[in-house]
Amino acid sequence: MLSIVKGLWIVFLHMFRRRVTVQYPEQKPYLAPRWRGRIILSRINGEERCVACYLCAVACPVDCIALQATEDESGRRFPEWFRINFSRCIFCGFCEEACPTYAIQLTPDFEMGEYVRQNLVYEKEDLLIAGPGKYAGYDFYRVAGLAIGGKDKGEGENEAPPRDVRTLLP
Amino acid sequence: MNDTVRSLLIVFILLIASLSVAGMLTWVERRLLGLWQDRYGPNRVGPFGLLQVVADAIKLFFKEDWIPPYADKVVFVLAPAVIMLSVLMSFTVVPFSSSLGVVDLNIGLLFFLGMSSMGVYSVVLGGWASNNKYSLLGGLRASAQMLSYEVFMGLSVSGVVLLAGSFDLRTIVVQQKAVWYCVPQALGLFVFMVAGVAETRRVPFDLPEADSELIAGFHSEYSSMKFGMFFVGEYLGITLVSAIVATLFFGGWLGPFLPPPIWLAIKTFVIVCFFILLRATLPRLRYDQLMGFGWKVMLPLALLNLLVTGAIRLAMG
Ligand code: SF4
Ligand code: SF4
Description:
The structure holds two protein chains of two kinds.
Chain A lengths: L1 H12 L25 E3 L1 E2 L2 E2 L6 H5 L5 E7 L5 E9 L8 H5 L5 E3 L14 E2 L1 H4 L12 H4 L27
Chain B lengths: L1 H35 L15 H11 L10 H19 L16 H22 L3 H32 L4 H7 L10 H14 L11 H4 L9 H26 L10 H22 L5 H30 L1
Helix pairs in contact in B: 1-9, 1-10, 2-9, 3-4, 3-9, 4-5, 5-7, 5-11, 7-9, 7-11, 9-10
The complex binds iron/sulfur cluster (2 copies).
One iron/sulfur cluster (SF4) binds next to helix 3 of chain A.
């Protein structure tokens, strides 16, 4: 009985506590930098990072990433088109984890409401941004031992020039 | 002739006022619950979210009004009307001042007790007509609950009747000029409050509804404005019980400076807030706990109260 009265009193006192509500449209909630929201495709040094390896599409648990790989004349791989269906995406971030080039990244933005469902399908030009996003300084082609236009074998970072193995013979 | 016009006017004003108060109460309740749970509650539509009521009403009216094909149609439609009718009828006996009020019944209190227990028919019939096992369970619980609280509800006000020597609500109020009955009848007030909460089927006695176990119980098959009527009926019921508590125990319209109806409104509002505070605090009782509580605790308390009041009354002559 007494506990009921005590309970009533405590609940009554809550009237004077601070509200916990975030008044959303006027007052934005704090989103951490690693918050998993709208997905972007980043660039490094002005070039697309994505090498169209399909790893993100494979990792995606809801199969909402679709892309087509292609190659330019210098041998550099890139996606011909890249499509994410955000009406299916669950923002799990697996694609970002799978990506070997830091190309695909999730950003702290969730305000993606649309009136037409089709508008939630983002194409490559909607996804691409100008900069490197969260991870600056990593350029896959600069560290990979792959010859592409403007960079031959052995010219990457931390890479020795290739050796003719026959000169090593005893 | 003039009298007829006057009483018709009072009836209309009362009807409109009570219905809009019941509507506003939905907003008050949500704001207060928010306040007591460290949040804001509806504050978007209009100033302070006041127009939320209008938005809700519009939404209810435009919802599909569905009657289940397996339901008993006539009873299904009638059930929500019963609750509105019974509560609105009870409002007629509430005195707003020494001269203001719809009727001046000399058995006003009895009328209230009778009419308010009619409300349970609405719940039982609604649960029965829905032809749904959860609804039926809700209706069943409502009737069992009615059986356990109706007894001590009547007994708890007998103390007041003994002191005032009348069933007339006006007389009861006038008798409280010297001291409000909440002082000599504190026990009666407590018992009546408990019965009142049970009567309106509110937390902690919201067994017939019990969202978490019976999926809204007796009104789970109701939609659109039929559901709205149950809803408004519930809030009308709260207002009614609060107004009756104010009349019986807190001196009704009596009070200095302000006009009498305002005093009644203020007292009623405070008691309504208390009802909402109860809802914000207490969990739902179990079915058997409710019955046990009613018969083993409240009934003896009410009897004791009646006995002591009667003895004192007799001793004082
Ligand atoms: S966040 Fe998850 S669901 Fe969304 S695209 Fe990436 S892997 Fe798929
Ligand atoms: S975004 Fe990353 S994982 Fe997906 S295809 Fe491009 S490089 Fe591969």
